[in-house]
Automatic annotation (TrEMBL):
PRC-barrel domain location: 7-78, 88-154
Pfam families: PRC (PF05239)
Protein name: PRC-barrel domain-containing protein
Annotated organism of origin: Desertifilum tharense IPPAS B-1220
Coiled-coil stretches noted in the UniProt entry, renumbered to this chain: 213-240
Chain segments annotated as transmembrane: none
Record's keyword terms, sorted: Coiled coil
Length: 282
């Protein structure tokens, strides 16, 4: 990465365009044209008049200086045999060489002295993109370009760093306007709030799950104890079960009443011999 001061393409939009010789106001920057094969700004389109009806196109060679306004030297001639490519790459989809969609190009960083594009900025397809986080992608990490999308190395996408983090780590030095500085701070605070919200939600969910597990384990243990106790009671009842008492007789005399168990009468088995009947005489 570079430590040279760079500008974002969006910072140049709507900036005042002045003529170097006459100080005449020519309009405002409407868009930038780039050569995608060279990753180089080649032209600036200026709008002027009522509702921006008039258009002027200036080649990068005609740009004399870029400050709070863009100074144009209209006396510098352009090569008529080299028409300006009309490409911007803004809005291009970003895909990886493994076939996954990573996001979309929303801006790029360029060297205001040379017009060289240093990094493309894209938003992620995930929740970070919803929050407005932008990541930087070097032109050397782009493997192919088309009319609607570009393909980048998957490793570069996986290891890409956010634009804000790159600034904080002094990997790139970008002149931020007051509104952009406030936007960066608001995004950082909002991302922190969202992350904190997710962290709190996860902590609550984990706590609820833990309590539910403990409750379930408690219920299971209690049911187990009740089952063991009930089984023990049933086994004790089977061991101590009193057989149905036999019928009783009551013996009454003059002094007392006594309940005696009824015992079956003794049965004497007598072996007998049988004599066959005599045969009837004929």
């Amino acid at each position: 990465m570079t430590t040279a001061t760079v500008l974002r393409q969006t910072q140049l939009l709507n900036r005042l365009v002045l003529d170097l010789k006459t100080a005449e106001e020519l309009g405002q920057v409407e868009r930038l044209w780039i050569d995608p094969t060279l990753h180089q700004i080649v032209g600036v389109v200026c709008k002027s008049g009522l509702f921006g009806g008039k258009k002027y196109t200036f080649g990068w060679a005609q740009i004399s200086a870029i400050g709070d306004s863009v100074i144009v030297d209209r006396d510098r001639e352009l090569d008529p045999n080299q028409p300006l490519p009309q490409e911007s790459l803004i809005g291009h989809e970003v895909w990886t060489d493994t076939g996954n969609k990573a996001g979309g190009v929303v801006d790029y960083l360029f060297n205001p002295q040379t017009g060289e594009i240093l990094y493309y900025m894209y938003t992620s397809s995930g929740w970070a993109g919803v929050m407005g986080s932008k990541y930087i992608l070097a032109p050397t990490e782009i493997t192919s370009l088309g009319s609607k999308r570009l393909i980048a190395q998957n490793a570069a996408i996986q290891n890409s760093i956010s634009h804000r983090d790159a600034i904080q780590q002094n990997l790139i030095q970008v002149k931020l306007l007051p509104d952009e500085q406030r936007e960066q701070e608001e995004i950082a605070a909002l991302e922190g709030d969202v992350q904190s919200f997710f962290d709190r939600g996860k902590a609550i969910a984990d706590q609820v799950a833990k309590r539910a597990k403990e409750t379930a384990e408690g219920v299971t243990e209690k049911a187990k104890e009740q089952y063991i106790q009930l089984r023990a009671e049933l086994e004790a009842a089977e061991q101590t079960e009193t057989p149905t008492p036999p019928p009783v007789i009551i013996d009454i005399d003059e002094d007392s009443v006594e309940v005696l168990p009824l015992t079956p009468p003794e049965v004497e088995i007598i072996e007998t011999q049988t004599t066959p009947f005599p045969e009837k005489a004929e």
